[in-house]
Specification:
Number of helices: 11
Radius of gyration: 18 Å
Structural class: alpha/beta
Number of strands: 8
Oligomer: single chain
Shape: globular
Length: 256
């Protein structure tokens, strides 16, 4: 699909969904007036992150006091089936991230209520749900429809049917999804941010999510090296954060 075709399909997709008009307005501003916003402070944050980065295994051990070994063994069949589902999926989306970090954050927090932004294939959703299902907990997810690819039906494709009863998926931009989620549940044990990567988008969402995270809860944000939003947020709120390097990218994680 050419870039022009993709943009046109996305725009038509927005026009068919009046509930997404607010996000369409924000996207137009983001891609015109605020074009440089996505990478604001990137260089500063990448050197900051590189200085303190640890492995996923080390972070889980230090922060949660847990060993990572049994996750891949215990859920070998589930993860193998999920990988097969990804291969079969006709729409291409983001692959699995630091699954152990998410799973053990939920285990550490004894999580019953988790919120995440960004779903794609549903790998991070799967990691949360494997833990939540043990305690009959609920995952609340915010995810924008894939308007250019007609991909709505494939969001969360790798999540097996037996876990879906623990999952509530809100199909809007974060600015519309999160208030709806917070009206259903106000306090969360774990939150995982992996959606709007712009500086302004992150700063807004971090503030909202942090307010609804319980004391002792775990905050995780992917791709913090894209700009300095995460570093700035932590410094502003005097948060001591751990930085995880995973597959050449940086993840921020801390306990509130």
């Amino acid at each position: 699909m050419s870039e022009i075709t993709r943009v046109l399909k996305t725009f038509i997709g927005y026009l068919k969904r009046p509930d997404l008009y607010p996000e369409l307005g924000r996207k137009i501003i983001k891609n015109t007036v605020n074009r440089g916003n996505a990478f604001k402070g990137k260089e500063k944050t990448n050197s900051w992150a590189a200085e303190r980065a640890v492995s996923q295994k080390q972070a889980i051990s230090t922060l949660f006091g847990l060993e990572t070994g049994h996750f891949r063994n215990e859920y070998q069949d589930v993860l193998s089936n999920a990988a097969q589902r990804e291969k079969e999926c006709p729409v291409k989306m983001g692959g699995p991230g630091a699954l152990e970090l998410i799973y053990y954050a939920c285990e550490f927090a004894n999580a019953q209520q988790v919120v995440e932004t960004g779903v794609a294939y549903g790998w991070s959703s799967l990691a949360s749900l494997l833990s939540l299902a043990k305690r009959n907990g609920t995952l609340y997810s915010s995810d924008m429809p894939y308007l250019a690819q007609d991909g709505d039906q494939y969001v969360g494709y790798v999540v097996p049917e037996n876990l879906r009863s623990h999952w509530k998926l809100f199909r809007f931009a974060d600015k519309e999804s999160l208030p709806k989620i917070f009206s259903e549940n106000a306090v969360f044990d774990v939150l995982h941010y992996d959606s709007d990567k712009s500086y302004n988008g992150r700063v807004w969402a971090y503030g909202e999510l942090y307010k609804h995270l319980k004391k002792g809860g775990v905050f995780i944000s992917d791709d913090i090296g894209d700009n300095s939003a995460y570093q700035d947020f932590c410094e502003k709120n005097n948060i001591e954060t751990t930085v995880v390097e995973y597959e050449g990218k940086y993840i921020g994680v801390f306990i509130k």
